[in-house]
Amino acid sequence: MRKLAALVLIFVPICLLASNENSMFATIKTLAAKGDYAQLEKTSSEFLKKFPSSRHAVDVSIILAENEKNPEEAVRKYRAIIAKYKNYGKLDLLYLRICEIYHLQSDWKSLAKEALTALGSFPKSAYTGDFQLFYCAAEASLYRYDQSLRFANDVIKHENNKNKAAQAALFSAQAERARTGYSRSYGHMLRELVIEYPQHGINPTALLLLGDFYEKTNSLGKAVGAYSSLAEKYPRSPEYAMMRTRLNSLRSKGVKIDRNILDRNTIERTQKFDLTYRDEQEKSKNQAHYSVAIGPLDTEKRAAEIHRVLKNFGTVKTIRRKEGFFHYIGNFASVQQALGLRVRIAEEYGINGSIVRFAGDENQRYIYREEK
After folding, report:
1. From CA 339, how far away is CA 345, in angstroms rounded?
2. Domains annotated on the chain, with CATH
3. Most exposed residue of 4, 208, 278, 296, measured as fewest CB within 10 angstroms of its CB?
4. Sequence-ordered strand ranges (E) for 86-206
5. What does the pLDDT look like over 268-303, one tens digit per residue?
């Protein structure tokens, strides 16, 4: 009888402790649902002190991180969880949350680093496509279009989720625009986006970009057609708000609508690359950088031939100047880095280039200067 009584005395406190633990965890979830962060933080702190080895401890820590209002503090909390619970089965989800925060903050360098780390750490994650897309977004925003294009194409080939594949295809088109401007290849990619992903979230953006392409390449009837399609299908979309003034302006000029916006022949008549294109990177950056310049090339045909070769070496900007056509390859921080590319181009294709310095003045214009 004495042994039985002792067992009962031990069993009752353990049951009460477990009951208290579960009750507190339920309270924490309720506070999180209500959005009462002050009380949530207090109760969670008490829980973690009282039940440090609880099976709910990691869940409580995650709930705290998910409900944190300060982005930097949320990232700190997620990192603390990753460091403390190394055997937690959903660490890739925590990396995903960190990437989401950096994406919302437009912290592209941190996003690129975090997404790449996640891809290396979790090669079979259910979120691999998400990490690749985050990396694409970061690299594109950092003007590293070749990297963005490579990862986007990988998503398109291997991702079963059509929404993710559609987003990757959009990144791929945007990278192509950065490489060749309003070119024939860019136009074809936009056309394929509209055809391949008509029911996906990128469709409003694809129609907007297709209309912009037609407007920039002077196919104004088709520009009105693409913009009108966007207005009719997505009247409440941000994309419609962005192009409404442009559509009204074209209509006020008497431009007649051409509904045949998927016509291949119109796009095929576009130049292979846009000779008047100026990359947003050059417009938005004041810091000096260096590129390898090839030119002058006296004919458009010759410029197109050289352009096909130079694309193997990275992003190419093509500009028409008085002397002829010039191609600018790369965006380097130093002359030495640009020199390495210049030597490669000369050795592999026998094309001699020069190194030029780009620098912005107060009017956002650029000075081209050959470096000795």
Report:
1. 10
2. 183-253 (1.25.40.10), 280-370 (3.30.70)
3. 4
4. none
5. 888 766 655 544 444 444 456 788 888 888 777 788
